[in-house]
Each structure stands twice: as structure tokens, then as C-alpha cells.
Amino acid sequence: MNVRAIVRTALRGTQFFLHLLLGVILISIYRSCFGRNWHQTQGGQTLINWWMRHIMRIVGIRINQYGTPLTTNVLFVSNHISFLDIIVISSVIPVRFLSKHSVRYWPVIGYLTTLSGSLFIKRGNHVELSRTLSSIKQALSNTRPVLIFPEGTTSIGTQVLKFRSGLFQAALDSHVPVQALTLHYRRNQHPDRLAAYIDQDNFLISLLRVLAQPQTEVHLSFTPPIDTHGFNRQALAAYCHARISQNLQYQLQTPDNANAFDPVTEFAILGECEP
Q1: Cβ proximity of 55 and 26 under 8 Å
Q2: Which end of the chain is more exposed for a tag (fewer CB within 10 A), N or C?
Q3: Residues β-bridged to residue 178
Q4: How much is the pLDDT for 259?
């Protein structure tokens, strides 16, 4: 690591830590004033969006967004690559995340995610799945959307892992649309391994690795909403998987010097997917 990268890491790391502390203070104040559902209020959603956009700038993330997300009563489905995914998505849409149970116990970050309305799941437990479905359906009855990562883990970002279909039942039972989104981190015309958080990666080391870079570029693409009428959960999961997979392959093949993805071509490709 050269001197410039060391200085950049130190400055960004200090700002990151201070912004985390600011988040703890602000969220604690909002919760004491507006109760446990403070994040459902307009002011709460504005605060979360502001906090995420600011930390995104601190980390050095540049977002290229394509497509238009729904804003209420929708279940979002996304591929999962990095701990940065939550920062990226939350800076664009006011969404509640379904996270693995262990995140709740991460220092500081676990406190922030819990108070900001994140839902948690213990994988491989049918009783917990039933409780999680109930929590998602209750959340979907409010104004703030919910996002799930049906792969259940992260990947390096070159392919979409198999989807677990159980959580899709929440959209079917709630009669809400599903909107698929695709994340793709890119550096030097290749998937960005520095952004990926996989295998035995250490969170702190991964964060410092990203902070040392001048910029982390991510492409965030929303496909048209899916009317869930007529689907079962397995077919819906397969359909979303096909959409995200084809969209990811399209992004992987798009050269860095392209001005932007062509949404007409992109969605035409996606339209060929059939349940």
C-alpha cells in the first residue's frame, strides 16, 4: 500500500467511525422520541437515507443506477456480493433488509441495523422461517418496502447462486409485486474482488481494503416489477433468478467505455425469461 492509499484509508476510516457514532446518537434520539417504529415515519426514512448517502461518499462508492424502483408495498429481491450492498441500496430506496441473525451482534453496526428496522433470520430452521415470513408480511403491510437476498450468502459477483424459495411466499400471501434488482461491482473492466465479501473474509480488513481505493464503482439495475398473480413460490424464485442472472451477464459484457446500459435492450432480454 503506497503513502497516498495509507493517508486515504486513515482519513476515510476516521470519518467512517465518526459517522457511525453520529448514527448511533441520532437513531437513539429518534427512537426515544417516536418509538420503536420511528423508521416508518417520513423523518425517520429521510434520516436513514441521508446517513447512508453520506457514508457512501465517505467509503468512496459511485453508483450507476438503471431502472426505477417502486417505493411502497413491494418485495425487492437482489443478488448479494458485499456488506456494501446495504449501503448502496439504502442510499437509493427506503427499504428494510432481511439480514442473517449474526449481524444483530456485530459491534455498533448490529445496533444500528436493529434500531433502523432490519429483520433477521436464522437459516435452516423451519420454525424461524415461519416467524420470519410473518415479520416480512407485517412489514409489507406498512409503507416501507422489504428486501431479501435469497441466495442466503454472498458471492464474488460473476454468477447468481441458487435462490431459496421460502421467503417468496411473503409476497404471494401479501399480494404485493416483486421487483428484482442486480448489483455489479466493477473495477478495471472486471468484477471487483475488493468489494466482494466472501468465504473467510474479515470485515475490518475488507473495509480497509475498500477505503484504500480511490473509488468503488457499482451498477445498480432495477427491472420492471413482477405481478405475482399466478405464481407459486418456486416459480417466482426461478423467474427472479433468471432475470437477475441475465441482467448480471449483460452488465458483465458491457465495456467500461459504454455511456450507459441500454434499458430497452436490457429489459427486452429480461422479457424473454418465462416462469
Answers
A1: no
A2: N
A3: 75, 226
A4: 46
